[in-house]
């Protein structure tokens, strides 16, 4: 299964990707909110960041690990680029299912997802250094083109996700302060509840009790997206999820809030890089 970004800059071209980012790495991150068809694991080895989903925002420090389910919008704010060391792993449902066993479901870190809390754990120094070595080796084997590196990459994925999942299953939920601006939180909540309806600045004004222009400016400053861009991206993400669940392109169009199939197909292809029918066929091939 190819992991596809729903918004530009978020594309992942394999079912498993791992990037180890340091101050010496090319600084190519985007702070725009985006989502993937893959799940994401972010591991902080050094430095502080603000990490946000469409539901909540928290500060993450050395040793913190966050699990972000597929299709959930997220973004990171790096406070000090001179102190920057983290790993980002993107992994598809199918890769996690293949690596799971009857005694340990490696998808359990991502589901069920509680909107109010980011799924997080904290690793002590010894655990963190062990995971870091696995992440470095995972990335090396994913980038290598030699016989056996695919097996090695699979082994390191299993090591990482087994260690993290066991820690997650045996750790209490971290109650971190929510640092998401309240007006943005309320706007995202309203959009989520009314995604398939017509949403205008007027309806947002009435629901959130703020000037529409001010709401729009706050969302743009926070997410990097206009309200309209965010709504369209959310609809496309929902359509991808529906297609993956087996719905037809026509059903996915109307169930995700589009009223015209031609417009839906054109917008979908522009954002995903494939038409709805092509994505449907790709999902059937994998299944």
What does this structure look like?
The radius of gyration is 19 Å and the shape is globular. A hairpin with a 3-residue loop joins strand 3 (49-53) and strand 4 (57-60). The protein folds into 2 domains: 16-170, Jelly Rolls (Sandwich), CATH 2.60.120; 182-286, Orthogonal Bundle (Arc Repressor Mutant, subunit A). The longest helix has 22 residues, at 149-170. Residues 4-12 have low confidence and may be disordered. The strands form 2 sheets. The protein has a 5-stranded antiparallel beta sheet. The protein has a 3-stranded antiparallel beta sheet with strand order 4-3-6, with no helix packed on it. The protein has 10 helices and 8 strands. It has 287 residues and is of the alpha+beta class.
Salient structural properties:
alpha+beta, Jelly Rolls, Arc Repressor Mutant, subunit A, three-stranded antiparallel sheet, globular
The fraction of residues assigned to DSSP E strands is 15-25%
- How would you classify the quaternary structure? single chain
Helical segment tally? 10
The best one-word shape is globular
Architecture per CATH nomenclature, i.e. the level-2 architecture of the largest domain: Sandwich
CATH class of the largest domain: Mainly Beta
The percent of residues in helical segments reads 40-55%
Count of structural domains: 2
Report mean pLDDT, rounded to a whole number: 89
Q: Which stretches are poorly predicted, pLDDT < 50 over at least 5 residues?
A: 4-12
Fill in the CATH topology of the largest domain: Jelly Rolls
Strand arrangement, major sheet? 1-7-2-5-8
| N- and C-termini, Cα separation | 9 Å
Number of strands: 8
Category from helices, strands and their pairing: alpha+beta
Rg to the nearest angstrom? Answer: 19 Å
